[in-house]
Amino acid sequence: MSNFFSDLPRNRRALVLAAIYAAIMAASFYLAYEVRFDFLVPETYQQERLRLLGLAVGFKLAALVAVGQLGSMLAYFSVPDLMRVVWALTGSSIAIYALRLLSPTLSTPRGALLTDYLLALAAVCAMRLGTRLYRERVTVGRKTEQVPQQRIGLI
Question: What's the pTM?
Answer without folding.
Answer: 0.81
